[in-house]
Amino acid sequence: MRSVLRIVNRVLIGFIGLVLLVLGGSVLAVGLGVRPPSWWIHDGRHDVLLSTAERTKWRDQGWWWPVVIAALAVLLLLALWWLVAVVRRRRLAEVLVDTGDGAGALLRGRALESVLAAESARLGGVDRADVHLTGRRTLPEARVRLLLEPHVDPGQALQLLTVEALAHARDSAGLAALPAEVRLRGVKHRAERVT
């Protein structure tokens, strides 16, 4: 679902940006004196976007205002859905642990995040670790950000994270798999003087 929202978000922003760029560029070009084609919405430099006749053309029709209000309401609801989908954080509240008896147990997502972050921070060469769990409670996914100390091999740090911290979290929660997206960044430090 998250990847679908990401794709919809990018396509919508790209489309809206392209439409605004074309319309704004055309208005600017006509305002600077470029002669527009006969079918274009602007006829010349002093033309308005909607003339009085165009604005009042459908006003006396009984269907006009309900259609306008319904279209604007749909646009508003789509914009609100888009805003909520973009802004909302999808943090996992709980993880379902299989206890073997068919009942299962619930593990708080924040508890697993804090344990995974603490174990990741104790790995060699890791200065700080942040972990967020996403996904579903039966199939959680981890987003890990590691701040690495200077002179640490990122490949080795990633290998240690995979073999130790993520494997321990996966095994302790009884999960078949714990996919993770890991972002590595180095600590900013002064350049060392070589003598």
DSSP summary: helix tally = 5
Which regions contain 5 or more consecutive residues with pLDDT less than 50? none
Secondary structure: number of strands: 5
Order of helices and strands: HHHEEHEEHE
What proportion of the residues is helical, as a percent range? 40-55%
Query: What about the largest sheet?
Result: 3 strands, mixed
Short description:
The protein is of the alpha+beta class and 195 residues long.
Structure, explained:
- By secondary structure, this protein is an alpha+beta fold.
- It is built from five helices and five strands, in the order αααββαββαβ.
- The strands form two sheets. Strands 3-4-5 form a three-stranded mixed β-sheet.
- A hairpin with a 7-residue loop joins strand 1 and strand 2.
- Helix 4 packs antiparallel against helix 5.
- The longest helix has 30 residues.
- The chain is elongated.
